[in-house]
Structures
1.
Amino acid sequence: MAKSEDEIVVGDAPASDSPAVTSTRAVDVGVSLALLAFAGVLAFDNWRTGMGWDATGPQAGYFPFYLSAILAAASVWGLAKELLVRGQASGTFVTREQLRRVLQVFVPTLLFCLFTQWLGLYVASFLLIAGFMVFVGRIAVWKSLLTAFLFSLVMFVTFEIAFDVIMPKGPLESLFGR
Amino acid sequence: MEAFGLLVYGFSVLLTWKILALMMVGLVLGIFVGVLPGLGGPNGVAILLPLTFTMDPTSAIVMLSCIYWGALFGGAITSILFNIPGEAWSVATTFDGYPMAQQGKAAEALTAAFTSSFIGSLVAVLLITFLAPGIASFALRFGPPEFFAVYLLTFCSFVGLGREEKHKTIISMALGLLLAGVGMDTVSGQLRMTFGFDELLRGINFLVAVIGLFGISEILLTMEERLALRGHAASISLRVVLKVWKEMPRYWVTLLRSSVIGCWLGITPGGAIAASFMGYNLAKRFAKDKDSFGKGRIEGVFAPETAAHASGTSALLPMLALGIPGSGTAAILLGGLMVWGLNPGPLLFVEHKGFVWGLIASMYLGNVVGLILVLTTVPIFAAVLRVPFAAIAPMIVVSCAIGAYAIQNAMFDIWLMLLFGVVGYVFKKIGIPLAPFTLALVLGNRAEDSFRLSMIGSGGDMRVFWSNGLVGSITTLALILLFWPLIGGAFGRLRSAFVRKTA
């Protein structure tokens, strides 16, 4: 069996060195602050709803109010830890090269969500897959278009026809009267 | 042997062409999902959940759990052939699995992984078969205080026993519980935390959050790491399978030990990941020649795989018997139960016998069929990895969006999914664990309800949580677990002081 195994190689080389955008500590602090603010807003809302007791027991805001207090306390703990306990250098959160690649997926996904709202899910899915394969994956145009079309079609048949799960649809589908 | 009779009944529920076909579909989809790095058990189950919305609950759970078994099997393929764990719990499998593949023993390693997974699950399923009905009938006597105490125990054990930084676990859990409370309050009917947004009236759906947190964020992370796959192709011949199976009984101690560890950690919320590492490390510690580990030793594949599957399977025990999931994937299956209109908890065993025993029977059958399936189809699934990521990534995004939309037919949920995707990406990178969040989000409402019902029952007296021996000991245990790091530390210091004194 020794020589029957050929190697499978996919994908491109690992990332080269690239300057850091932010440190993990900075993000950690930022997230803690955001959570603290979020906890504050929720605590206020629950205080308004009523966080005490009435004749039937705890009011609607009771449980969430104390949870927001716990969330706030844990965020403060995290903040204190990051700010007071200095020491070993914190790692890189994301390098410029990595951020670029993350945005390469994130931006198309965002556009896909927008298009879903206007054009329906299936058309948006065709555009996303074809666009992503051509521009990010640099795969031949005909392969990309074919894959995107087939995938969207299979999804349409599976969900709309076989399983009766209804997706958002746009002008194209209404053209076919669905 | 009441359980045995019920199990036979379960098989009778199962043996229809439709369910068997769904089982195969589930297994194939699951292996596929497990093989692809960037998609895992929880994501796969969450994304494919919408397919089951129009099915009856028994077919639905059989298909979903088979996706889960398939994903467990599939994870091993990528870790052994490519040194890339398809799942977090397959990391320990790469230590010895990949070196074996490099030495041209890929087929042996794969056979070992699949077979030991099978054994691990089998032990766990036996445990479920004979233990779950007993626990469920015991839990039928539980009132709201007992249930709240059990929920508390679940949450506290995550904080106390988790490996992450404590405050991060607490943040994740509190956030999950809070978001579970958004929308209509189930007890008083009042609206809360909606800030006047109509879309928030429905509340934040658990599955939408899971799809975003695990599916979308995983795509972002995979893209960031820019996977360069380099691995071995392999096919398994019957000769190799028989050879490995003949060797296997020699490692019965390792297999048994890993199964026990897996079952234990699976039932305790904490999950399969810890189990696979623990199984590996213990096997190494007890071995005579420790240095041979990490260099392609077959025992190093047996140990983590057995433990991972035992824990992945036994995580379903508390879900079935108590309505408390032991792992992230079990939490998603629990979310599924609610979508299909079942009420998770001990009553399931009484009210939906066909469902419960059909599921348990499908665990036996699914694992046997899964084992045969993976052993025969490895080359096909390994070839899936040749498909460029640029084609897979957008397809996963589309599947996620379909899944998120289908749950409540709401466009808002697609946006929510995207938001959770970003949150999940950031949280994973700064080390805030996502499993406690998932668990808190799915259990949040029921935990709150049981708390408020206990309070209403007792007239606001907190002592209700110590009102009888059962609830008192659960509550106390929960508090001990919560402060375990402190208590354990104090014990350690006491002991070392004592040792110094006597020495």
2.
Amino acid sequence: MSIGMSLILAVIAGMLYLTRRLCGDMMLERPIVVCPLIGLILGDYQTGLALGATFELIFMGAQTIGGSVPTNMVVASVLGTAFTITTGQGTEQALLVAIPAGVVSSTFEIFAKTVVSVVLARADKYADNGNSKGISFMFFVGNFIHFLAYSVPVFVAIYFGMDAVAGLTESIPENIMNGITAVGNVLPAIGFAMLLNSLGDKKLFPFFFAGFLIVAYLPAVNVIGVAAIGVIIGLLYVFNDKDEEKSDSVF
Amino acid sequence: MEKKVEKKDLRKIFWRSFCIQGSYSFERMSGFGFCFGMLPLINKLYPDKEEKRVALKRHMEFFNSHSWFTSFIMGIVASMEEKNANDPNTDNGEAISAIKSGLMGPLAGIGDSVFWGCLRPICAGIAISLAGSGNIFAPLLFVIVPNALHFFIRYKGVFLGYDMADNFMESMESFQIRKWMKVATILGLMVVGALVASWLNVTTPLVYTVEESTIEIQSLLDGIMPGILPLVITLILFKYVRKGKNVNMLMLILVVVGFVLGLLGIIQ
């Protein structure tokens, strides 16, 4: 891809990530937003949309829990979309290229979150002098480091890596493709497992099976349907529980 | 002269609270963002350099909570800082730090399970199925619906926090937060169950031949329970995630195992 377009995509990736940092976690860095946007820029919105659905499913449960760094889904989404649109190859090949890149790129974010400590030390000094302008400036510096942590790997992957791997992925034997297809199908499970973990109330866990069984036996019920049933069951269960009346404070 | 936090100061905090996760670090997490959010108010309340110095350092401390709730905590802190600034004889610094660290954990827990564990999977599930059928508005829906709630919580939060700072323990109880969290958890669990059943498309292409008749293993499994493979895979992974195993490592293992099983024609 041309150096100009690579730069544009890198800047967009960095900006989308910064919305999480500076725009209150608006979820603009999720694949369902990133992939269609990159598709729009490269002139193929529909391909971006389809990839967005695939990648969102894979990364659905991915979230930073207490500062841990998951696979970099922004890098994976941008690279996967750019790769599919420019080479015309399929979703399996896109996953094969994007997932490893996302795993490797997460080290850049770890690097940024570590290096910002240096910025913090300067900011501490300014705080000690009562210099609020200095603090604001260091805040800007720290955010710029985070911006680079996303835009640099995107640029490197797209400008140097994409064409190089495109030749390799073109002639993959069929059984290898079957393996990649299986990986794509099975990957969302890790996200679901993480979601279940964040909903960690052992006593309520049977409701997970309730949701599963409804859709498994009645495939016509979609997510909205289950959500509606879930609200009703939740209200009935919680507000009819006598033991619950006694203690009602999380603090 | 009495120093007063005005509406426009709170509105400033609301805007700045969007930057809560800026300059994020392992060392202090959102601590820097919290200081950035309080900066204008600190400047206004403490014209005296020594007092300002202490207040700035107080807000450079470690902080981490759910992003959408930070304006609420900032509102409470604004009220406490206002009292502190008007009362030069006593130092409420420790109380302010205690409120911050006392609130950030529970609110992070509520936010993570209600918004990330429940709201986002619902919106994502709907957006994925819309995008899958080529509906061009899927990303817009995914952005607009949750963020309408986000902006509402963030805007109301700062004023609510400021108003109820004095007796917020009692006010919190009247919200029955724990009950609503339970409702959200039940809803979240059911939605994740539905997502596993509808979006985890792992099947087996294995066939088993007995005296000229072939039996598809998948139809046998479907006879036991539709979607049993996705269910078992999710439960195994959940067990390991709950044990605290590194998620990136688990993902890597899943990729390798999935690849090998796919290569051998055991799953697809």
